[in-house]
Specification:
The complex is a heterodimer of chains A (about 130) and B (about 220). Chain A has four helices and no strands. Chain A is mainly α. Chain A has a single domain, classed as Cyclin A, domain 1. Chain A is globular and about 35 Å long. Chain B is an alpha/beta fold. Chain B has eleven helices and six strands. The longest helix of chain B has 15 residues. Chain B is globular and about 55 Å long. Chain B starts with about 25 loop residues before the first strand and ends in a 12-residue tail after the last helix. Classes of the chains: A mainly alpha (about 130), B alpha/beta (about 220). Chains A and B meet through helix 1, helix 2, helix 3 and helix 4 of A and strand 2, helix 1, helix 2, helix 3 and helix 10 of B. Chain A: This is Nitrile hydratase accessory protein. Chain A: It comes from Candidatus Segetimicrobium genomatis. Chain A: Pfam families: NHase_beta_N.
Chain lengths: ~130, ~220
């Protein structure tokens, strides 16, 4: 962990850009998708953005992520959570624990999306 | 080891009672999972409260999907291969050696593979990973099988990755934490003597910097 409890990745913004294409372009993802579904990218971005904004210390998120992953690992093989589900659950718990969002408003907003009262714009966007 | 469990479906880890209804719901004709709904709900509420903007998230995701990847680590490795003095600085004081290349990361330890020692990296508790130099971790890195078995039977796990190590080679497994992350400096393959630093960087794979693969020699040198 580095200064201010931020995820170390925010430093990466300062990394120089290098060739993305052509013969000088190093391998990127070894053919593997970074995110399996768009919501995974959003869930990732939410937690990292809030950490960068200083809304919480990264360690506070990380301890909840570890707990969520450990809980998933204890489940039988076919019932474990996908990684970013644990990630999302850890974020939800942290936001509620800190009083940033309430469980009731989250639930309410989920219902609005589920019933089509609101449209999901981002997860699902190309 | 390499199989994935696939994406959505099960809902978030810490569901509250009222959210406990299961799996998918219909939304404008398409199937929407609880995880998608929860993600959308969190984003929408946080944006509404002015805590972040959707643009910020867009940029972040874009940065990680497109801009940051193992190529940054590959560049570091290629420099170390071609500049022995740089390699020494990298091994002894990685923060300043990385800063020379414009990479700012102060918690990275670089461990060097040699004919006698093979290093590999794991995070047994979650998924600590040197994002700034390798991008986002591959799926298998986050799987329970890799996280638990790599420390117990590294040779067997490495064999499953196709990496057969001689019995005389010492295997060192490094368990990452929030405070300390690791990058493996793989061995430079034979047949690359005439290559430039930029050409070498194209050979260095993500897996070789996690320590589950060797760097393959270029096709023309084989």
């Amino acid at each position: 962990m580095n200064q201010a409890g931020r995820p170390s990745i925010d430093n990466a913004a300062a990394s120089p850009r290098i060739d993305a294409e052509g013969p000088g372009a190093p391998p990127r993802r070894n053919g593997e998708l970074v995110f399996q579904a768009p919501w995974e990218g959003r869930a990732f971005g939410l937690a990292v953005a809030l950490g960068e904004e200083g809304l919480f210390a990264w360690e506070a998120f990380r301890t909840r992520l570890i707990a969520a992953i450990a809980a998933s690992d204890r489940r039988p093989e076919g019932e474990r959570r996908a990684y970013y589900e644990s990630w999302l659950g850890a974020l939800q718990r942290l936001l509620v624990d800190r009083g940033i969002l309430t469980a009731a408003e989250i639930e309410d907003r989920m219902r609005q999306f589920a019933t089509g009262q609101r449209d999901i714009v981002n997860p699902g966007a190309p | 080891m390499h199989d994935h469990r696939g994406g959505g479906g099960h809902g978030a880890e810490h569901r509250h009672e009222a959210e406990h209804h299961h799996e998918t719901e219909h939304h404008h004709g398409g199937e929407v999972s609880q995880t998608q709904l929860l993600t959308a709900a969190l984003e929408s509420l946080l944006v509404e409260k002015g805590l972040l903007s959707s643009d910020t998230i867009d940029q972040l995701v874009e940065r990680y999907e497109k801009d940051i990847g193992p190529m940054i680590g590959a560049r570091v490795v290629a420099r170390a291969w071609t500049d022995p003095a740089y390699k020494q600085r990298l091994l002894s004081d990685s923060a300043s050696a990385l800063a020379e290349l414009g990479i700012h990361m102060d918690n990275l330890v670089v461990v060097e593979n040699t004919p006698a020692v093979h290093n590999a990296v794991v995070c047994t508790l979650c998924s600590c990973y040197p994002w700034a130099v390798l991008g986002l971790p591959p799926t298998w890195y986050k799987e329970p099988a890799y996280r638990s078995r790599m420390v117990i039977e590294p040779r067997a796990v490495l064999r499953e990755f196709g990496l057969e190590l001689d019995g005389t080679v010492e295997v060192r497994v490094w368990d990452s934490s929030a405070e300390q992350r690791y990058l493996v400096l793989p061995e430079r393959p034979a047949g690359t003597e005439g290559m430039t630093e930029a050409e070498l960087a194209t050979l260095v794979s993500r897996d070789s910097m996690i320590g589950v693969a060797r760097v393959a020699a270029p096709a023309r040198a084989r």
